[in-house]
Design a protein that fits this description.
By secondary structure, the protein is of the alpha+beta class. 41% of the residues lie in helices and 10% in strands. The protein has one domain.
Amino acid sequence: MLLNEASELPLARRLREKGGAPLGEVFSFMSSLYFRGKLAYARAFATMRCGAHVIAPGRGLLSLDHPVRRADLLAMATVTVSQDETRFREPLARDAQRLARTLAPGDAVVLLGSIATDKYVQVLTACFGERLLFPPAFVGRGDMSRGGLMLRHAAGGRPLEYAPVSGAVRHGKRPPKLEPLRI
């Protein structure tokens, strides 16, 4: 829908315009609940000094508000998200190292993605070491469940608990389903 040059969706039209659309908004549209949860959670709890960043295939770490265009998304789609893919790994490592140099003592980086695979965990751990944290409540959850969990915590103003990725249990049994939201 977004990449169709004839699409009349407002977001698709913005992607075709010179100014583009914010990466966070585009990824939220494309991945629905999962990225909407990440976006809401990051906006609620990211520090002002470091901000929130998105792993963008072939582009490294970009801010949530970084403008992207249709051509940018098409280029990202050609990059395999894998630590073995140089076009993915090198920009990610470059930007993670840059971010690591800006951290103050005691700062941490919270990964809101899955740690079940090495697709980005190895690169980020090499840059941030023990400062790379994640919510252990993610272990065993699928994308949609993690998204729902982040939405609930953002709406409630309660950050999740964090633990270092290094040495963490990365696979576990599926936790109980989240209770339906009462609206």
